[in-house]
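Because showing beats explaining, we think one record worth quoting, sequence and backbone structure tokens together, and here it is:
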Amino acid sequence: MDNTALLEALGEGHAPAELACHFPLSMRARLLTRPLKSLAPALTVNGPFADDCLFTCLAEQADKLAHVRISAHGGKALLRGVHIAVLSARGRIDIAVGDDHSRVLVGAETVCQVSMQLFRRPTVLIGDRTTIGQARIIGAYSDILIGEDCLFSDEILVQSNDQHPLVDLDTQQVLNAHRRTVRLDAHVWVGRRAVLMPDITIGRGAVVGAGALVTSDIPAECVAVGVPARVVRERTSWRRQF
């Protein structure tokens, strides 16, 4: 599987051209894909993962995976079709997999302190050169894209879908069974203790203030703050250094 095919397989539900712009370094890297269990003990793996569960890393970092921990949760007897790709050698990445066909891609030169809980065939894509100080990502029947060169502060929650069903008591219809999305374009800065809710898009270069609750789209190149988050300044972006 070449890099383009890998990206398309991991990014099911996203346009290939869109993904390529967030993973330019990853597209050029020399990658190694192996059965998940075969990379232990260099990679910490706990749980009943089938032989078709895969892990992809940079070829030169196959023995430098101590920062990644993958575990099973939820009680399934055997997990199948999981594919996790971590192309960064820095940070700490804890991934708890609760269902088959979960997919994760952490791009090249990305530094993450992140924990993920995965349910019901989610995709979680974190672009190249992104920094995450500390975040919890709930991937539940959803597609999450955090673009290239984003910056997360600490104690951030990405809540991509509900984890339990809401039921209409008259009709017994499940109200929240549809697949949902969280999408951040490139170069988005998310402040400390912000919460990102389902079905949102945050535009390129936007800034989300500390403690903000994002429940609707935020345009590019603006500052949004508050509960719920609202735009307070336009034609504004950020840089990594003063």
Remarks:
- The chain has one domain: 3-234.
- The mean pLDDT is 94.
